[in-house]
Structures are given as structure tokens and as C-alpha cells.
Amino acid sequence: MRPTLRIEPLDETHDRSRFNCADDAINAYLRSGLDRDVGRYGCVAYMATLGDRMVVGFDTLSNAVVEKHRLARATRDRVPGYQSVPATLLGRMGIDRSIAGRGYGTDLVVDAAHRALVAARSTSGSSLLVVDAKSDALIGFYVRLGFTSLPDQPRRLVYPMHKIEQLFSRQA
Ligand SMILES: CC(C)(COP(=O)(O)OP(=O)(O)OC[C@H]1O[C@@H](n2cnc3c(N)ncnc32)[C@H](O)[C@@H]1OP(=O)(O)O)[C@@H](O)C(=O)NCCC(=O)NCCS
Questions:
Q1: 154 part of a folded domain
Q2: SS3 per residue for the chain
Q3: Beta 148-150 vs 128-132: how paired, if at all?
Q4: Phi, psi of 124 (to 5 degrees)
Q5: To test the ligand 1 pocket, which listed residue (95, 96, 104) has its Cβ within 8 A of the most ligand atoms?
Q6: 86 lies in some domain
Q7: Domain of 50: which CATH number?
Q8: What pTM does this model have?
Q9: Which domain holds residue 96?
Q10: What's the total number of domains in the chain?
């Protein structure tokens, strides 16, 4: 059976030195840019490990806004009346090449969606989970998970929070 990722907030015991996903900019960010952003409250970072403290995956979440007029009509009808819709941005994320293609990237996104839902319910309202696909090829990865592209920005994808809630209430 496939070992389960342990996903928890970044702390000083995590070893990020050997992390190597398919995107060099994301590898560099994990080692040198992330701490600055976390230190400035720009994002919250979660690390994924498998049995030891070596980081094999990570993601970041931040507050964001999406302009309402950019949303598809069906999504627009389910968000508040503001022009700027409160949202949660799934920012940088990656899975180490050594474990890629085994569903761990999916696990990480599902965990991040759950964290976003918990925060949206209890801490800071958010009607959408948003992600910016780094390439056209990656759009399909997020669509398979249930995200939909904005009509005029295909690389920006959203997952309405009420649908995330339904997802987890079905699993409960
Ligand atoms: C994208 C990423 C997180 C996926 O992690 P993963 O553990 O391999 O994902 P899963 O096993 O859950 O899903 C695999 C599916 O993702 C898709 N996928 C993964 N990487 C992809 C890429 N670079 N381009 C297009 N599709 C990709 C494929 O459809 C793959 O399906 P397949 O196994 O049938 O080919 C990982 O490849 C990664 O870290 N990439 C580098 C960093 C990055 O691009 N981050 C996302 C920025 S938007």
C-alpha cells in the first residue's frame, strides 16, 4: 500500500535541502524565498513528509480576491455581491520527482482545499479556492480535481468553496 503523506505547518525541523520537483523555480523558492514570504505574513506553508523530516511536497495558501465579472455565470450566482470576491490562493506547490505520478500531488491539493474550507468557515471568509496553473499542460491536472478555468483566463482556475464543502461532507 502507498504510504500516506504527513502534511503539517512548516517548522524548523523540516529538511528542505534536497527537495527536487519538476520545476526549478519552485525548488529555489522553497529553499530561499519561502521564509521571507512566511515572515511577512504573505502566505502559510505546509510541508509534506513520508516517515522522516525530509520534505517531499509543499504548498502555500494566501488570501486573494477575484474580480466577480471574470467568473463564469454559474459561479457568479453563488458568491457574495461584492465586485471583489474574497478567495484563497493555492500559491506555489510541488511534489518531489521521486514520488511524482502516484497521487501525492492530488492528496496535497485535497488537503489544502480542506484547510481553506476550515479557515473560510472559522477565521476569514473566502468563497473560492484559486490556483494559477504554471503551464497550459497543468490546467488538466486541476480540472481533473474539480477546478474550472475562468472564461477569459484559462490558466486561472477556481473551485467554489460551497462545492469544496459538499466534497468533504460527502466523505464524512
Ligand atoms: C504538478 C505536480 C504537483 C503533480 O504532482 P503528482 O504527485 O505527480 O500528481 P498526481 O500523481 O496526483 O497526478 C498526476 C497527474 O498530474 C498531471 N501532471 C503532473 N505533472 C504535470 C505537468 N508538469 N504537466 C501536465 N500534467 C501534469 C498528469 O495528468 C498526471 O497524470 P498521469 O499520471 O496520468 O500522467 C508535480 O508534477 C510537480 O511538483 N510539478 C512541479 C511543480 C509544479 O508544476 N507545481 C504546480 C504549479 S501550478
A1: yes
A2: CCCCCEEEECCCCCECCCCCCCCHHHHHHHHHHHHHHHHCCCCEEEEEECCCCEEEEEEEEEEEEEEHHHCCHHHHCCCCCCCEEEEEEEEEEEECHHHCCCCHHHHHHHHHHHHHHHHHHHCCCCCEEEEECCCHHHHHHHHHHCCEEECCEEEEEEEEHHHHHHHHHHHC
A3: unpaired
A4: -155, 115
A5: 95
A6: yes
A7: 3.40.630.30
A8: 0.96
A9: 6-171
A10: 1
Strand pairing of 128-132 and 84-95?
parallel
Check residue 172 and give its pLDDT.
63
Q: pLDDT by residue for the chain (172 residues), tens digit each? A: 899 999 999 999 999 999 999 999 999 999 999 999 999 999 999 999 999 999 999 999 999 999 999 999 999 999 999 999 999 999 999 999 999 999 999 999 999 999 999 999 999 999 999 999 999 999 999 999 999 999 999 999 999 999 999 999 977 6
Residue 1 covered by a domain = no
Q: Taking the CB of residue 85, how many other CB atoms lie within 10 A of it?
A: 24
Q: Length of the chain in residues, anyone?
A: 172
Q: Per the domain annotation, does 12 fall within a domain?
A: yes
Choice from 98, 138, 142 to test ligand 1 binding pocket (greatest atom count within 8 A of CB):
138
Q: How far is the CA of 31 from the centre of ligand 1 (A)?
A: 20
Please tell me the residue having the least CA distance from ligand 1 atom 42.
94
